[in-house]
Amino acid sequence: MPLTRHRPARWSWRTLLPWVVGLLPLACGLAVMRWQTDRDLRASSQATVAEVAGHVEHILDSLAAAARHLQPRAGQPCEQVQLALRVEVTRNAFVRSTNLFDHDNLYCSSLFGDFDEPVDPRDYTDGRLWLMNGNSVTPGQSLLVYRSSQGGRGAITTVDGNHLRTALRLIGDDDELQVQVGNHWMGADGQVHDGTPPVAASAAVSLASSRYPFSIHGGYGPDKPGELMRSRYPALLGLLLLLGVVAGASCRWQLRRASSPRAELDRALDAEEFLPYFQPVVRKGDYHWAGVEVLMRWQHPREGLVRPDLFIPYAEHSGQIVAMTRALMLQTAQVLAPHAALLDDGFHVGINITADHCRDLRLLDDCETFLQHFPPGRVVLTLELTERKLIEPAPVTLELFEKLHAMGVMIALDDFGTGQSSLSYLRQFQVDYLKIDQSFVAMIGGDALSQHILDSIIELSAKLGLGIVAEGVETDVQRDYLARHGVDFLQGYLFARPMPVEDLLLALAARPGRPRLPPDAAPEIMRG
Ligand code: C2E
Ligand code: CA
Ligand code: CA
Questions:
Q1: 276 in contact with ligand 1, CB cutoff 6 A
Q2: What pLDDT shows up at residue 258?
């Protein structure tokens, strides 16, 4: 039985599972790598921020030391202290200017000597530090100002913002670093901005100095973790990808392998891949089409047309045959009913039914639905029960058969002669027809003993008053022999092979006025 699956692009758990299994190791590996990368980035960011903070504290130590030296001179006349102010500038690498103030007025500067400018302590965070975007001497040039005060007078020292900028750039070359003082901050571009600095997209870290009122913010851009993962774990990434593909592919393979015949038949039933084919049954004498037997075919998307003996035995074994037969009956009714005018009244339609179906009272509904498609009396539904699998004469089965007969449904015993049905069995189920198995028909013209068995079967069915259908009639010799021995109906390749509904309708329509054909004038179309 062809078990390969072919679903029309439908998302089911069977299609999704291999993707999930394939992506799982990749997702888990990426998550672990990402976690490790984040941890490393955070540690690196913390170290950088701590290093920058230490460097800024070192700069501020210089400013504080210079201010401390000058603090006692505050209040003295500018000409007396001016030299001392300049000495501090020269002695300290980071100090750009030194200034003295008294009563909130800057009165002496290392740069200009006498000066006169108000000093507002509120500009300074914690009264000590001010990050400003330039002053009157160098506007636009950032500046960090340190203020030391005692009793309303004190010293102010400044450092050029370039020193901070250099520290931010050199220490954390690919970090996003900012130094914040109060409500002002400066990034690696050297510009001072108002407000709070933006939070970095990844590994954002902040560190407030314990010694001076400033804090350092650090972190990395949004692309940094991805870049780091790619540069650090290229082999591992490749391995994970390979693992994902292998896991996904083997899961898919397993699923395909595990796709049971049952699932395959269910799928085919859903996809309406089981089709009715029709083989005519001809009447003795005029060889007119008295009816058709419906034979199931599987139009498999990959394997093509599949013969029933390749899948019916499994469907019978699994019990799925009941649903398949129900669908086949409905489909048969739907394709034939619109062309009911082509059929003679009492046209037989034979459906093969299994023993399991005979324990299911719903068979009555199935037959009723089938017959309702046609004008009353147009078709005679014949259920063909195979003798190979014996039907239990259970109460439900007997009730079912009684009701089927009441409905006008006929019963034929298929493959007769191959099983061991007793005469009482035939009576109990009120069988209407016997279908002589083709193996007996094939014996015609053979040895005397085989022919004797066939004759006995024909004789028996005549005695029981049952109609006889002979299957597998392939030669004129067989046809004539059966006709001579009183077999009512014949079926076989000699008359027609099983055909799709289109061919059946064409053949039915090709009979103008539905004439009765002489035995020797079977037209080509009837020969299939
Ligand atoms: P069957 O019910 O005995 O059907 C007759 C089989 O003999 C058909 O085979 C038919 O094609 C074949 N046949 C007809 N005339 C000739 C002939 O002249 N020579 C030879 N050699 N063969 C001939 P098919 O269609 O392959 O069906 C095989 C079997 O599968 C059927 O045997 C029947 O038992 C089962 N089957 C088919 N359709 C159904 C179905 O819808 N339900 C059930 N339960 N069984 C089915
Ligand atoms: Ca049959
Ligand atoms: Ca048969």
A1: no
A2: 61
